[in-house]
Amino acid sequence: MAETAKYAAINGGTLFTDMKTQLSLPKTKRTVACAYGFVFIFIVVTTFLAFSPSPNSSSPWFTNIFSLSKEDVGTSYRSQFSSVFSNLFPRSSKNNFEQPHLDKKGLIVEKSENYTQNDDKGGVLENPFNSSSVLSDKESSVVKNETLSEVFDDKVGILMGNQSVNQTFDDKDGIFKANQSSIEGSKSAAAVNQNKNRDFDDKVGIFKANQSTIEKKSAPKFSSKGKTANVEKKRDVDLVKSLLNCDFFDGNWVKDESYPLYKPGSCSLIDEQFNCFINDRPDSGYLKMKWKPNACSLPRLNATHMLELLRGKRLVFVGDSLNRNMWESLICILKNSVKNQKKVYEESGRHHFRTEAFYSFIFEDYKCRVEFFVSPFLVQQWEVADKKGGKKETLRLDLIGESADKYKDADILVFNTGHWWTHEKTSLGKDYYQEGNHVHNELNVLEAFLRALTTWGRWIDAHINPKKTFVLFRGYSASHFSGGQWNSGGACDSETEPIKNDTYLTPYPSKMKVLEDVFKGMKTQVSYLNITRMTDYRKDGHPSIYRKPNLTLKERRSQWRYQDCSHWCLPGVPDAWNELLYAELLVRLHQKHEKKS
Fold first, then answer.
1. Distances (CA, A) of 355 to 279, 352, 382, 458
2. What tens digit of pLDDT does each residue of 468-508 get?
3. How many CB atoms lie within 10 A of CB 336?
4. 173, 320, 536, 564: the active-site residue
């Protein structure tokens, strides 16, 4: 009864009715369960395929979607599902052509199989433009493989297929390597990527928007040596042409910190009385002045080049102690440029240049000589018997200086005279000037100067071959005795600046006007270095009392009976005279080439 009651119909129903009623609910639940089960299985399969794709899969769909390496499993699940989602539901084609760049978190993806292994001689850079590189958007997404060839930086201007990257960069410019071969150990993906890029920058350089290593690689290479040489040659020719019609002597002194042409105190050949720096002159502004013509720019004296111009030649200075001033300056300038100083020496081994009538410096490597002959008047100093049976000095206005035969074959001659014509004997002109056996009782100094230079001019025309020898004459160098003449208390030791107002310049010397008249009567062309005006500005450039070292100011003033306001400190003003000489040589060389062509 109990068993029967256990299976009895409820509410009076039959067994069949009861069974139908009981089975209707499970049928509905089973349908729902199947639906949920299907969804669950789909999710499981999808997730399995997402994280464990077949290594042998050849499907491009799977390859493009599921290309994350095993090292990336630790990356956030959000990023993984985002990658899958973006491939299942790709963005519009408009977004696919945006500029590709690395995500800020530095996700590194495995290179696709169609990238070949590259040589690593030039350094390694993980390709930031992989088929699976991540765009730095608010949400990371994977760029499709086929997009790579269209998204390369448009500023570089090169479209590159996925397979062409490794073919374009060679050892010299850096090599793209597979990311999976450069990531090691437990380093974070972002750190590795950042370090590798930094390493590439150090070795090769940084890719910039307006610069491409691919373009540099493929561009034809030209040798710049010949082009540079041609540019420099044209520049030099243009410079020389600018000198042709330039008045070198109309200009001003300008300050130039690159001067002097040689280091003060570096040239032991300078006469002690000219070496103001060694003699403790306290100011230095006189060393930093350059002569600048108004109509052109003088080339800085290139000592090595000038020695090349003088190779195998003789350059001879003839004149008084002011030409010795210029000669010493040039010796120092040229000697300073020679590496082996032992190959520059005075022919007789002398180191002091005040007592002899002739000096010759030899530049052995260039087989050239730079010489000085003492001849303060350019004509001969003479002696005749006086009425008392003794001898007296005279000046032979009709005879060229006795050393003339020794320098007549020189290649370059630089003459001067002037200062000795201001001394008492020459100024007064009484029983001093001689022509033949006749001694003039009295002769005006300007007339005597004219006759002497006429003798010089005739000798030049008769003995100098202008095709071989270049003749120059350096004009009168201004003196600056203030408060008296050279022998009557004149001084210049307080001068530290050049004259800046032309009204304070002295009139052009009458003796130089006589000289110019002599030039006009000569057959031989003489280049006139008219330095009178340029030296007149430089009242600051004289040795004055700085003519001996290691003296107190009081001792200096008492040491010298006369101040020297005629000669020039070295380095100093005569260096500029030699720059003028250098410019004259360049012009002459250019004119010779023009005649030949």
1. 21, 8, 19, 30
2. 999 999 999 999 999 887 777 899 999 999 999 999 999 99
3. 15
4. 564
